[in-house]
Amino acid sequence: MNDNYQQNSIPKIYVPYWLIVLLLFLFTPLGLILMWLSEWSLKAKVLVTLFFAFLVLNNTINKKLNRINATTGNSHSISIKEN
Cα separations (Å) of 76 from 46, 58, 64, 68, 71? Predict the structure, then answer.
């Protein structure tokens, strides 16, 4: 296969840095796609992607735990009684 075809198969686009950062917080999926198509370093792309993946997983786990606590009536709060 032609090496030039493989190198040019994923188009690199120019989107201003500030716009990508703004879209990462306002509309994360589009921001991630634009970030991966831009000229950011691989290290930055991986770190930002892992950060947003952590946020999504953390939010999902917290919602499930809250739903379980609401249905079972369990609360993990500690009350201190003073004598």
Answer: 35, 18, 15, 12, 14
- Interval 32-66: pLDDT, tens: 999 999 989 999 999 999 999 999 999 999 888 88
CA distance 51 to 59: 12
Contact 32/24 with Cβ under 8 angstroms? yes
- Retrieve residue 69's tokens: 């606590």
Pseudo-torsion of CA 59, 19, 13, 24, nearest 10°? Answer: 0
pTM exceeds cut of 0.90 = no
